[in-house]
Amino acid sequence: MLPSCKIRTADASVRGVRTSISRPSLLTPIPEWYFLFYYVVFTFLFISLRTVVKMPVTDPSVVRGKQLYQTLGCAACHRIHGEGEMIGPELSSVVRPAGR
After folding, report:
1. How far is C-alpha 92 from the chain's CA centre?
2. pLDDT average, residue stretch 12-41
3. What secondary structure letter does DSSP report for 75?
């Protein structure tokens, strides 16, 4: 058994009375329902995060750009996000403001 801590109270009515508070043992068995509780909590946490962090809706111009990249054969020379060849410049960081 682990040692206990002795605490003296400052209250006049219980002056001189010692109370002992023992530290919980590390070998105390954990109730089996704790695991179920944590399983349920983390399941709901992940489900709620999945609904909050949704993939953005693809803009029609992005879809059209992907179609052009594939049909015109741009991947033969250019690489975007790890796909394609490295003959021409990398196009992953190329950003053009809308309307230009």
Report:
1. 26
2. 69
3. G
